[in-house]
Amino acid sequence: IPFAEAEAMKQDYARHKEILPVVKAVIEKMATIINRYIDKSMTDTIYLCGGTCCLTGIEKIIEGETGIKTIKPKNPFLVTPAGIAMNCLI
After folding, report:
1. pTM here?
2. Are 22 and 1 in contact (CB under 8 A)?
3. What's the number of domains the chain is made of?
4. Which residues are within 8 A (CB) of 58 and not within 5 positions of it... i.e. 6 or more apart?
5. Quick one: which of 9, 34, 70, 83 has the most CB atoms within 10 Å?
6. Complete DSSP assignment for the chain
7. What distance in Å separates the CA atoms of residue 58 and residue 9, rounded to the nearest whole number?
8. For residue 20, which of 12, 67, 69 has the smallest C-alpha distance?
9. Residue 90's pLDDT is what?
10. What phi and psi values does residue 75 have, to the nearest 5 degrees?
11. Residue 84: pLDDT above 90?
12. What pLDDT sits at residue 89?
């Protein structure tokens, strides 16, 4: 599908049930990579950020694959800018 149509589909929460089965294997692969590089003895929570985590249900897949509590913030697009702003010395 054309890029513009894919972007519109991604932002339409009603269509996330269509998208999730298509990208689920990629999300599971991401969780496998997390498992490979994370120290589970020192990690009790995973916090998601960025546009991809807006996908409905992504946190359940990551948590299911890693066994680590996974949280998706209310405004995932703002996590990185907010973190930078909070850590800037003005």
Report:
1. 0.78
2. no
3. 1
4. 27, 48, 52, 72
5. 70
6. --HHHHHHHHH-GGGHHHHHHHHHHHHHHHHHHHHHH--GGG-SEEE--SGGGGSTTHHHHHHHHH-SEEE--S-GGGHHHHHHHHH---
7. 16
8. 12
9. 56
10. -125, 75
11. no
12. 63
Note down the domain range covering 33.
3-87
For residue 69, what are the contacts with CB-CB under 8 A and spacing of at least 6? 44, 45, 46, 63
How long, in residues, is the chain? 90
The rounded distance, in Å, linking the Cα atoms of 58 and 60 is: 5
45-47 and 69-71 beta bridge pairing: parallel
Enter the tokens of residue 42. 């020192």
pLDDT of residue 12: 86
The pLDDT of residue 39 is 92
Q: Return the higher-pLDDT residue of 59 and 75.
A: 59
